[in-house]
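seq as requested:
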Amino acid sequence: IVSSELSAGSIHKYSYTDHSPLTAHNSLFYRLKIIDKDGKFEYSPIRMISNNTDGMISIYPNPARDIVTVTHPSTNSIAQLQIIDMTGRILRRTTVAISAVQTNMNIKGLPAGKYNITWSDGLINHTQALVIE
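struct tokens:
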């Protein structure tokens, strides 16, 4: 089962649950068609939803040069993504919004080498290796 929620303004929230997601794919793409009472409609932004059953993060491209995209579990709270060098220093940090499942991180200026990207919401932590060319 894959679920996503989307806010439209400050009042309306829309959600969708796919009870039969494609199991051969780790990432699935969805959008909602929002129809008003007068028949007018608009489409939500396309959302990529992680279908990783193990809850791990994935990074692409890897190896990377300028920007890396991290697909991660959604969360009920604010989460942190960090790039950490092999000595344990935090080199980059970004806050992940509630229900986000994909975050881009700028890695320009970091020297070539091996790093770790960690995702943490305070309860659950995931780490994945990253190679910068």
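The radius of gyration is 17 Å.
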